Amino acid sequence: METFDLDRGPAAWTAWASIAAACLLTSGCGPRDTRVECSGTVTYAGEPVEEGSISFVPLAGGSRSEGAVITAGRYTARVQPGRHRVEIRGSRPLATKVINSDMPGGIREDYIPVEFNDASTLEAEIPATGPHLLSFDLPER
């Protein structure tokens, strides 16, 4: 059986450095995921938001926005703990028929008012332990 002799030159040092790097990379020394699961329901005017999205924008800055797709009025997201501004969007097919539409799936409209997305004043506190249940009942405007 051959052993590594550190006096053998650069090849031995490269082998030891590779082994050490592999151990560090697989031992969990990287950044820890501190996000917590957040899920719930989203309704607008008393009806589930069938298709849409929800975003959690940190108010303190320093971390990126997290979000999820809303399907049949439900969502599940992984979000950093802290205070967030919440943006909710919903889309649905237009009620009117459009002739010669090249849009796959037809033309859709964003029907959730801007006060719940781009100009949202909705806020949520996400605790450091999860999972966390957070539902939104948006009134019709």
3D architecture notes:
The chain has 1 helix and 10 strands. It folds into 2 domains: 1-30, no CATH class; 36-138, Carboxypeptidase-like, regulatory domain (Immunoglobulin-like), CATH 2.60.40. Strands 1, 2, 5, 9 and 10 form a 5-stranded mixed beta sheet that branches. With 141 residues, the protein is mainly beta.
Summarize this structure as a short list of keywords or feature phrases:
mainly beta; 141 residues; globular; 5-stranded mixed beta sheet; 5-stranded antiparallel beta sheet; 2 domains; Immunoglobulin-like; 1 helix
Summarize the entry for a quick read.
With 141 residues, the chain is mostly beta strands. 12% of the residues lie in helices and 39% in strands. The protein starts with 9 loop residues before the first helix and ends with a strand.
Topology:
Blueprint: H1 10-26, E1 36-44, E2 47-48, E3 51-58, E4 66-71, E5 74-79, E6 82-93, E7 108-110, E8 123-126, E9 132-133, E10 136-138
Parallel strand pairs: 1-9, 1-10
Antiparallel strand pairs: 1-2, 1-5, 3-4, 3-6, 6-7, 6-8
Q: DSSP helix count?
A: 1
Low-confidence segments, given as residue ranges, are: none
Residues in helix, %: 10-25%
CATH topology of the largest domain, by name, is Immunoglobulin-like
CATH architecture descriptor text of the largest domain? Sandwich
